[in-house]
Design brief:
Elements: H1 4-18, H2 42-58, E1 62-64, E2 83-89, E3 97-103, H3 107-121, H4 124-127, E4 135-141, E5 144-150, H5 158-168, E6 173-174
Length: 179
């Protein structure tokens, strides 16, 4: 049965697939959906959102700022920190690859937390929570820790994930993950 909701979804899919650059149109800009605490100010949210959005655009992907929350594996002491989630969508992955910025009060606290987050991402208790081939990228830029989780066996668009990894390598500083 055709309902207004299915007609709207079909039109959105048709519009998405007929765009010349294969990137979806951006969603209306607003507060990113998140169950996490929101950043301390609208300027902080806007800056983090634009920083992640610029990376996604540089990878040739469409920017999506709304949608489901993403909860990356974080040490419990950092779970109350604000997060900003921006997704990079492509024709093969219209839901989008999530980039998550954890917003710290300042660059010094982000820097001091980076090693702890890196250790946690590869800890045995964390690895049981993610697919066996999950790979994390962790970068720091100012007061932001940027997390990207890639799972090659489940990537709807491996080329888009690779393009995003190339762009991420140019942002801020890499936080190496212990092996």
């Amino acid at each position: 049965p055709t309902t207004p909701a299915t007609t709207s979804t079909a039109l959105q899919c048709w519009n998405f697939s007929t765009r010349s650059n294969n990137a979806p149109p951006p969603e209306p800009q607003g507060q990113p959906a998140s169950a996490a605490p929101t950043p301390r100010s609208s300027d902080e949210t806007a800056q983090a959102t634009e920083y992640l959005s610029a990376a996604i655009r540089a990878a040739g992907l469409g920017v999506i700022t709304g949608g489901a929350d993403v909860r990356p594996p974080l040490p419990p002491e950092f779970n109350a920190l604000p997060r900003v989630v921006v997704r990079g969508a492509s024709t093969n992955d219209p839901v989008g690859i999530p980039l998550v910025a954890v917003v710290f009060p300042d660059a010094a606290s982000a820097s001091s937390a980076a090693e702890r987050v890196a250790e946690y991402l590869v800890a045995p208790q964390t690895l049981v929570l993610v697919p066996p081939d999950a790979r994390f990228t962790l970068r720091r830029s100012g007061s932001l820790l940027i997390l990207f989780q890639r799972t090659p066996s489940a990537d709807p668009d491996p080329a888009a994930a690779e393009a995003l990894l190339v762009v991420l390598a140019t942002l801020g500083e890499e936080i190496p993950l212990p092996r």
